[in-house]
Amino acid sequence: MEEVGTGLLDRLDAMQRVAASAPGGPLLIVAGPGTGKTRTLTHRIAYLCAELNVFPEHCLAITFTRRAAEELRHRLDGLLGPVAEDVTVGTFHSVGLQILRENAGAAGLPADFRIADDADRAAARVEAGDDRDAYVAVLRKQDLVDLDELLTLPLALLRADRKLAQAYRDRWRWIFVDEYQDVDEVQYELLRLLSPADGNLCAIGDPDQAIYSFRGADVGYFLRFSQDFTDARLVRLNRNYRSSAPILAAAVQAIAPSSLVRGRRLDPARLDPEAPLVGRYAAGSVADEADFVVRTVDELVGGLSHRSLDSGRIDGRSTTLSFSDIAVLYRTDSQAAPIVDALARANIPVQKRSHDRLRDRPGVAAIARELRHAGGLAGGLPARVRLAGQVVAERFATPTLDGSGAVRPEDVRVAVDLLTPLARRCGDDLELFLSQLVTGAEVDALDPRAEAVTLLTLHAAKGLEFPVVFLVGAEDGLLPLRWPGSEPDEDAVAEERRLFFVGLTRAQDRLYVSHAARRIRQGAERDCRPTPFLDTIDPGLFERLGESEPRRPKDRQLRLI
Ligand code: ATP
Ligand code: MG
Fold first, then answer.
1. Residue spans of alpha helices (H) in 161-300
2. Which neighbouring-strand residues pair with 478?
3. What percent of the chain has pLDDT over 90?
4. Integer angstrom CA distances of residue 180 from 187, 273, 362, 440, 539
5. Nearest ligand, CA 505
6. CA of 80 to the centre of ligand 2 (A)
7. Would you state the pLDDT for residue 439?
8. Which residues line ligand 1 (CB under 6 A)?
9. Is the pLDDT of residue 258 over 70?
10. How high is the pLDDT of residue 561?
C-alpha cells in the first residue's frame, strides 16, 4: 500500500493534482490522449477516501470495458489497500446488472434471472421473427434478460420509483465516469438519475477521441456537461506523457481541422532531441505494405537482439524491443489477413484482437455451459474453471458425430487461461462470473504480456499504448472509410479523423504510417491515394522510408503546436 497523506498526490503533475484534489460538486476533466486520466481518476478516489474521509462504499467508478475496470480496481488496491474493495467499480452494464439484481422483483423478474447468451438470443429471434416486444416475451418465459435491458430496465425502475432513485443517490454519493465522450442516451439518462445536478459527478474524457457514434454514443453529452450539472468545475490536462515529441506533433496537427476542444493543447513531457521522426511508407501494393511491416519488425526486434545491443535508454525507457511492444492498427478487420500471413511466414508470433468477445473465443462457451450444468464441487471458481476445461477437453478429444468436436484441446487450454483472471475476481459467485462473461462485451482476451505482435482495429486500440505502432492502410476511402463512388458526410469524416487521431496517439516511441497504391475493395482492384488526413501534418515530421518514394533529408526542426 502506498503512503497516504500529502505524499499521495506526489506522483501527479500540478494540473493532475488540481483535478485529483478538487472539492465536491460536478467536475469535468477534459484531457487529451496520454495525459494520465486513469492515474488522475484513481488518485482522486484515493485522495477523497484517505484525506476527506469519504467512505469508499459511497464511490462508484464507471469505465467502458471490463479490462479498464479491472485495471482501475488494481490501481485502487495499490493506493488504498483493502478498503478499495468497498468502492464499486464496473462498466455501465455491470452497474445496471447490480441494480437489477437488487430489485429483480420490482422489475418482474425472478431473483435468479439469467442474461441471454448468443445462443439464447438467436433462438428467441427465430421464434419471435422481427417483432421486438414478442422477442422479449420469449426471453422472459425462460427468465432471461437481454444485454440492452441491463440498462433500460434499471432506467425504467429508477424513473418509476423516486424513493429507489434516492436510495441509490444516497449510496453512491461520488460517481466517476471515464471516457465520458462515448456515453449514449440510455447511459446518460441513467447517470442523470443517479446523480443530482449539483452532485459529486466527475466525468473524464476527450471529445477528440469520440469514435462510437455508430453505436449510439453522442459527444454532445460531454459538450453540455456544464449546462446539465450546475457550477461544474472544469480542469484541463495538457501534458502528454506517452508519446515522443514528433509523434505528438503529428497527431495534434492531424486532429486540428476537426478538433472539438477549443484551444486544444497537448504539450510533450518527453523532449528527447534524438526521437525518430514518423516513418511514412508508400507501398506499391498490399503485399508490399505487409513486407514493409515484416521487414521493420524484424529490424526492430531481430536486429537489436541479434546484435545484442546493450539496453541503452531513451527517456528512461529501455531501447530493447520485443514483439509485445509492437502493434499493427487498421481500419477494417479485412486488412489483417495479408499482414498476419506475412508475419507468420517470417515466423513472427502474432495475436489478433478485433471486436470479437471473450465469450466468442473457441472453447469459452463450452466451458461456461459445463460450469452451469455441473454445479460446483471444487472450492473456488478458478479451480472449477480448470476442472470444466478438463471435462470439455476430454469430451472433445474424440470428435462427436454432430460436429461439436470442433473445440481443439489447445483452444480449451487458452480459454481456461483467459477465464482464470475473471474467475479469480468473482471468488465463489458463479452467477456473477457467467454474467460478467456476457456483459464484458469487449474481448479483453488480449494478453499484454504475450510475446507477440498485436494486431487490432483502431476502435479496439482505444485507451491502449505501445512503444511501436504501425498504422497501415492510411488511404482515402479506407480512412476515412466510404463505399467507392459514394460521397462522405461531413460528420462521418470528422469521426474518421478522430479515429486516425486515436491511432496515432497509441504510439510511444516509434510510429509508422503506410499506404498502398492499389488495393482490392468491393471485389475490384482500385487505385488508392494516401488519406487526406496526412495533408495537415508538417512534412518535416516524416521520414520517408522505402524505395517507392524518394528519400528526403531529415528535418529535425520540429514545429510543435
Ligand atoms: P487515453 O486518452 O489514450 O486513454 P490517458 O489520458 O488515459 O490516455 P494514461 O494511459 O492514463 O493516459 O497515461 C498515459 C501514460 O502516461 C501512461 O504510461 C502513464 O503511466 C503515464 N503518466 C501519466 N501521468 C504521469 C505523470 N504525472 N508522470 C509520469 N508518467 C505519467
Ligand atoms: Mg485512458
1. 162-171, 185-194, 220-223, 225-228, 245-255, 286-297
2. 481
3. 58
4. 10, 35, 33, 18, 34
5. 1
6. 21
7. 67
8. 12-13, 16, 31, 33-39, 206, 209, 241-242, 463, 465, 505
9. yes
10. 30
